[in-house]
């Protein structure tokens, strides 16, 4: 703590000066003149220091004070001390503001600080990307002049900020934003805008999924219910009718069963992010079994089905999942190729990879459908796919299985000419390679 000026000391000093001057005046016989000269000199000295202070504060703008003694030295030192404290406080304040802004910039949300009449005080960079606010260009602008959406204006007007507001972004209508306003400090508001596009999409996917599953299950149930309702005690069907009804009911039950099985497979694959790979998956044996099954399935349509299998080509992976992928692709080719078609299935080594391909000369698929085929429940022709007993989940399962085996499904198709579904198992999962083999000796 600095010492205050001692009034007593100052007045004593002044008094002693005057005494001395008076003495000099008495000796030189000009007392009044001596006192006058001293008073004027004192006044000039004070004025000189006032000008020094004026120059220091307004012209030099230096921190260090003019060199001076006595009362003025004491005052200069006091002002110097206050200025230093002021600068330090400003620096601290600047750091706090910078830290706040850095924090707000790092947030994954757009942040806008507003006055209580909705004028912009500050906004972060994300506010520019999500809502098109520019800082510092928009500083002082009213928010309701910059975001003109009627729902937003109503939201500001009613000031019921407990509930957030959902709106399309004013700069990109593909984005869905959530606006939250909260009071912040004295008569200020904080607007926080969150991009919830992905959340909305996921919610939509979930809703679609539930709707699709319910729809798919309800269809066979309605058929069963219809038959059961007409077959009460009094109206038992005749033999021919019963045979037909029995077949239809059996088909529908099988359809429900396969839907539930496929759903279970899908959820099992999705639920277990990491699974233990079996060291050897004997794909050739698996494909020979599949060939037998395909021939059984093919009895009705009499396609010519050719399997071309490299019997030495084994991989590491998840047997049941791979079986499901191979089987889905072969079954689809049989299902979606008109009777008497040609189907070829191959499992061959290509460079260091193992390539599986199913080609058919069936109905083919238009390009705009191809990119959506692996979505759950997506079918090119809903009615026909259902008639073939399809669930719309087969290719979704294939996609998941392949991604787990570091592979991707490739689809080439031309309407009217046929389709080719293929994928390649990467070298690191193929056994018998000279490098990185897992469990088997190199060939
Ligand atoms: P589904 O159980 O309906 O067969 P998938 O997911 O296996 O479901 O197949 C999705 C859709 O892709 C099918 O409904 C069908 O329209 C089309 N599709 C699949 N494979 C073929 C193919 N080989 N030829 C023509 N269309 C096909």
UniProtKB/TrEMBL annotation:
Leading EC class: transferase
GO molecular function: ATP binding; phosphoprotein phosphatase activity; phosphorelay sensor kinase activity
Occurrences of domain Histidine kinase (ranges): 212-429
TM ranges: 15-45
Domain of life: Bacteria
EC number, as in UniProt: 2.7.13.3
A Pfam family this chain is assigned to: PhoR
InterPro entries named among the record's database cross-references: BphY/WalK/GraS-like (IPR050351), HATPase_C_sf (IPR036890), HATPase_dom (IPR003594), His_kinase_dom (IPR005467), HisK_dim/P_dom (IPR003661), HisK_dim/P_sf (IPR036097), PAS-like_dom_sf (IPR035965), PhoR_N (IPR021766)
GO terms classed as biological process: cellular response to phosphate starvation; phosphate ion transport
GO CC terms: plasma membrane
Subcellular compartments: Cell membrane
UniProt entry keywords in alphabetical sequence: ATP-binding, Cell membrane, Kinase, Membrane, Nucleotide-binding, Phosphate transport, Phosphoprotein, Transferase, Transmembrane, Transmembrane helix, Transport, Two-component regulatory system
Reactions performed catalytically: ATP + protein L-histidine = ADP + protein N-phospho-L-histidine
UniProt-listed Gene3D superfamilies: 1.10.287.130, Histidine kinase-like ATPase, C-terminal domain, PAS domain
PROSITE patterns: HIS_KIN (PS50109)
Function, in words: Member of the two-component regulatory system PhoR/PhoB involved in the phosphate regulon genes expression. PhoR may function as a membrane-associated protein kinase that phosphorylates PhoB in response to environmental signals.
Entry-linked NCBIfam families: phoR_proteo (TIGR02966), PRK11006.1 (NF008235)
Protein name from the UniProt record: Phosphate regulon sensor protein PhoR
Organism (species): Rheinheimera pacifica
